[in-house]
């Protein structure tokens, strides 16, 4: 079997085991990953900046006793710093190049991981499809006519295509879980404060953004968390300490769990039959695992909740655009995409008092959610309302142009009209995914489970949301679901190095 095929078949833990047993070398793994990256690059377009020569140099000197020694990896081109590497954030604004590495990157490197590239994202992570004027369309290895989701879609595409076994990702409103659902991967949105974002930022989007990874296996997701979690002195939050190692939790039987299932749309928008089938598949697997499952409703999670979330994001985007203008020394309005510009303008039209009031309402609802679901070990719910969309179809149905034209005619004090515009933008931009923002607001962990493949051969995952700070239960449950469903054996139907095609 060729090294390229080994890279395709093994997860990160399995590849590191081969290195530890001297059956394969880090330079061989890195060269195989680079070859695979270049072979698939025209099809999936998931690389922002290649780091090939630096990766080859690092592979020659990496300590082979490290937990993930020599394992190829990718870093999302947004919200994370690797010293000397430009961060574009999917934007045409000139990139920021850090003279430091983020704490999380330092922990990746200390574990032996070898970054071979930065991965694409939509502009500033604002769309749930990875398409940008800066880098173009990132495509799904399962079907290149369809999206790999966003905003960590580049990372998901590289993992699903067999370029790397796992990759860094971040999540402010579903950006780990949506790409995982679209690409047949495991994606854990961690508890708030579990992994530091410092020193690039202390928090992002009022604490709603978290960083972790997308991977093929639950054990990789758990091991990566063991190697990167824990606040540093600059962190404003600290998640509850785990009882032990996350990898140990992923390896043990979860016991009999009490689960809930929530299947309504918080926005009252349509949900596809395939999405509900995926949820039913997950429920059936949970019952096969011996768990109790109870149907619940969350009537207090509705349009007002999502609207307040969107307003906080808009205000954050407005602030980000101000910061970018200051960084480059000129206005950046003409360099950003219309969707970003519209959201920033809406954010500027909100008063500070209105944003603060919305954040307080979100926090109050989050407290109620945590209290009313505390008796469950996890709550199952969808991630995406429809199977992975065709590339280009997430343009918000002309809403960006319509709203920008209306904004040009509005007086700044007409806030009732602004609220109506938020409703329009919400329905046009979030019709693909209605649920993930719930856990970004509440700070709860939630893991994407790739339990379903549609009749058209596209992945369609669901999520399990847990109690704050309790990734261990989620990982134990997810590992059981992985075993019952057999998803670990699935691969996107791309050509593999021996010339064959393998898929579900």
Tell me briefly what this model is.
The chain is of the alpha+beta class and 504 residues long.
Please characterize this protein's 3D structure.
With 504 residues, the protein is α+β, with helices and mostly antiparallel strands. The protein is 41% helix and 13% strand. The chain has helices at residues 3-9, 12-20, 26-44, 52-61, 103-110, 153-160, 177-183, 218-228, 246-251, 273-288, 303-328, 338-349, 352-372, 399-409, 415-429, 437-442, 471-485; strands spanning 47-50, 72-76, 86-87, 96-97, 114-119, 131-132, 136-137, 139-140, 143-147, 166-171, 186-189, 210-215, 258-261, 292-295, 378-382, 446-449, 462-466. It has an 8-stranded mixed beta sheet, with helices on both faces. It has a 3-stranded mixed beta sheet with strand order 1-5-2. A hairpin with a 3-residue loop joins strand 6 and strand 7 (136-137). Helix 11 packs across helix 13 (352-372) and helix 14 runs antiparallel to helix 15 (415-429). The two termini are 21 Å apart. The model is unreliable at 496-504 (pLDDT under 50).
Write the layout of secondary structure elements.
Layout: H1 3-9, H2 12-20, H3 26-44, E1 47-50, H4 52-61, E2 72-76, E3 86-87, E4 96-97, H5 103-110, E5 114-119, E6 131-132, E7 136-137, E8 139-140, E9 143-147, H6 153-160, E10 166-171, H7 177-183, E11 186-189, E12 210-215, H8 218-228, H9 246-251, E13 258-261, H10 273-288, E14 292-295, H11 303-328, H12 338-349, H13 352-372, E15 378-382, H14 399-409, H15 415-429, H16 437-442, E16 446-449, E17 462-466, H17 471-485
Parallel strand pairs: 2-5, 13-14, 13-15
Antiparallel strand pairs: 1-5, 3-4, 6-7, 8-9, 10-12, 11-12, 11-16, 15-17, 16-17
